[in-house]
UniProtKB/TrEMBL annotation:
GO cellular-component term (any): ribonuclease MRP complex
Any Pfam family: Ribonuc_P_40
InterPro entries reported in the protein's UniProt record: RNase_P_Rpp40 (IPR013893)
GO molecular function, one term: ribonuclease MRP activity
Name of the protein in its database record: RPP40 protein
The organism of origin for this protein: Sylvietta virens
GO BP, one annotated term: tRNA 5'-leader removal
Listed PANTHER family: RIBONUCLEASE P PROTEIN SUBUNIT P40
């Protein structure tokens, strides 16, 4: 109708272009990583870490929080959960922008190719999060911003292609079934 054509002329006049997602790469050296077993979600003392411990660790790594538990640090005294192992090199890729589900599936497929030769990684993760103040969430509920605006999910994929799916939403949001 008329509204649609008015909008189109507005957009063409103002030359609004689709923004390309911004991609940044970084290499983390000598990174302490939790030891995980794909069939053990709860973790076992001295054998593997739990899903909750991994999720907390991942938050620290993605926010570039130091993992060395220094008492002089005013920011964090967090340390990597036990048991852990030191990885000489870990690659962190961040893609910022509006990303459709089909692209996320493509990313997952490409990440799984990383388990081919040479088999360097035991597991990898893909975290997808919406903006904290996004108006929508899963299912039919509006996204409640309230305190933190949590709105994310995380795949942990193992070399044998088992995977974990972790989800975090705010207290007033619906979670997918």
């Amino acid at each position: 109708g008329a509204e649609g054509s008015t909008l189109m002329s507005y957009f063409s006049k103002n030359q609004i272009k689709a923004l390309k997602p911004k991609i940044t790469f970084s290499t983390l050296r000598d990174l302490q990583c939790p030891v995980l077993q794909s069939n053990d979600l709860q973790g076992k003392p001295e054998e593997s870490c739990s899903t909750e411990e991994l999720f907390e660790w991942l938050g620290a790594v993605l926010n570039q929080v130091s993992l060395d538990n220094k008492s002089s640090s005013f920011l964090s005294t967090y340390c990597c959960p036990e048991p852990n192992t030191v990885v000489e090199k870990a690659f962190l890729c961040t893609i910022t922008g509006f990303i459709i589900p089909e692209k996320i599936i493509q990313l997952l497929e490409q990440l799984c190719c990383y388990f081919g030769e040479p088999k360097l990684a035991y597991w990898l993760t893909l975290t997808v999060h919406g903006f904290a103040d996004s108006p929508v969430s899963w299912r039919e509920s509006e996204h409640g911003f309230h305190k933190g605006g949590e709105n994310l999910y995380n795949f942990v994929i193992f070399r044998n292609l088992d995977y974990w799916l972790q989800m975090a939403v705010g207290a007033h949001d619906d979670c997918p079934p």
